[in-house]
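Whether sequence alone determines local backbone shape is best considered at the level of individual chains. For completeness, the protein is quoted in full, as a sequence line and a line of structure tokens:
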Amino acid sequence: MEPILEIEFLKKYYGRSTNQTKALDGITFQVMPGEFLGIMGSSGSGKSTLLNCIAAVTRPGSGSIKMKGREILNLSGAELADYRGKEIGYLFQNFELLDNLTGRENILLPLSLHGVPEKESGKRLEELALYFEVTDVLDKFPVQMSGGQKQRVAAARALILNPGIILADEPTGALDSKNAKALMEKLAGLNREENATILMVTHDSNAASYCRRILFIQDGVIFHELRRDVPDETRQLFYERILTVMAQLGGGSANVL
């Protein structure tokens, strides 16, 4: 099986040489189809910079990012727009919903931007709304939704074009414990039942315990890797292993679940 995403020797430095921050300092890893991979590390370790480079929002100083074998750093114009819109689904911490659009319109927005007729997306919209339990807020505006409803609408929007990979940046960061747990169970279900490929950046050990593999970043490099390969290992045991590594990194765990 070929990897869906290949990161090789990725570097991104900020500032001048006398006062330089190495956000990414030669990161290399792969993501396989159907994997649920977590990226963890303390604040400022380079997690979000990495995700933004993969999303083609930030350009790295050097290195390679290949999606399905294609080098995305060489893309521009319409090809880059297609990559951002169709190959990846981006789930933000702060939802990023448009306040003047209803839940339905927010979810369907990527389709309209890419010229997909609305009637073709009706079945997919219905399936996602049912799965994320947001059918009752499709005709509401974001101001009328709870935080959990907003994030589930945002998740449906991220998936509406059937992207190759879902990039989730601290998806539980703005949610209370109940909604955070509900969202993580939905994402884990998508990974388990639909074989969705998910790459999630998080500082929270509870959220990360839903992953199957975790890369820990410190000072722009991969410090450690954890796998949940033992068949009978519970999420609680995996969570405790995560806490041990985070203690070495000097990070903690928000009790969101």
Strands lie at 5-14, 21-31, 36-40, 62-67, 70-71, 88-91, 165-169, 198-201, 213-218, 221-227. Confidence is low (pLDDT under 50) at residues 252-257. The radius of gyration is 18 Å. The chain has eight helices and ten strands.
